[in-house]
Amino acid sequence: MMTEHVLTATNIDKSFALDDSSIDVLRDISLHVNPGEFVAIMGKSGSGKSTLLSLLAGLDQPTTGSVVLNGEDLTAMTEEDLALKRQSDIGFVFQSFHLIPTLTVQENVEFPLSIARERHPERVDRLINAVELGHRRNSFPHQLSGGEKQRTAIARALVAQPKILFADEPTGNLDEKNASQVMDLLLDLQKVFNTALVIVTHDPGLAKMADRTITIVDGRLV
Ligand SMILES: Nc1ncnc2c1ncn2[C@@H]1O[C@H](COP(=O)(O)OP(=O)(O)OP(=O)(O)O)[C@@H](O)[C@H]1O
Predict the structure, then answer these.
(1) Which class would CATH give 7-215?
(2) pTM of the model
(3) In the chain, where are the structural domains located?
(4) Which residues have C-beta atoms less than 6 Å from ligand 1?
(5) How far apart, in whole angstroms, are the C-alpha atoms of residue 222 and residue 207?
(6) From ligand 1's centre to the CA of 25, what distance in Å?
């Protein structure tokens, strides 16, 4: 039986315009991610990891090439459709958390559902408890530690039950203890929900836990 990939990127190039020249950041990248698979993206600073992750997650568009997620070509979608898709089918966790400061933990977790005009109170509860923030559900982001913020962001990223979760250095702003708690949690939830996980990391220890590691050198896969 042929397995359907959750994500397929084909011949991606990305350049950015700089004044009167342009800079080629990614060249001819093709890759796929299987359902439930954990893929780590590694490479030196400036090699293009974050740029690649943004393209795979539909946060930005490649200059050429295609990104197909759950059978839909993100590069052929309007910005409006893409925005909806990001709320419903794609989870994203950033190094710097990106929580909404005026919303509580619970409201942040509910946010992707509210955009889709859905309510799943039991799922929200289950996720808030899974990230061990039941006692902090009414706190605002500025009242939380870094680890608590990132745990909130993980619950939010999973609340719409996406088939794939992207994380850009999710433990980069955390101390060792919080980093390992956040990673353990992410891996537990990945298994529970059978979510594919694509993580950009500098941490070889974290990459070791991955099913597969992809390395970028100067914008190319090696
Ligand atoms: N919007 C942009 N405009 C111009 N250049 C950009 C833009 N975004 C990224 N770049 C350039 O693309 C290259 C790759 O950046 P990217 O952030 O993807 O690297 P990275 O591998 O994630 O690095 P780090 O590990 O330091 O976060 C860098 O040279 C960066 O300056």
Answers:
(1) alpha beta
(2) 0.92
(3) 7-215
(4) 16, 18, 23, 25, 43, 45-51
(5) 16
(6) 7
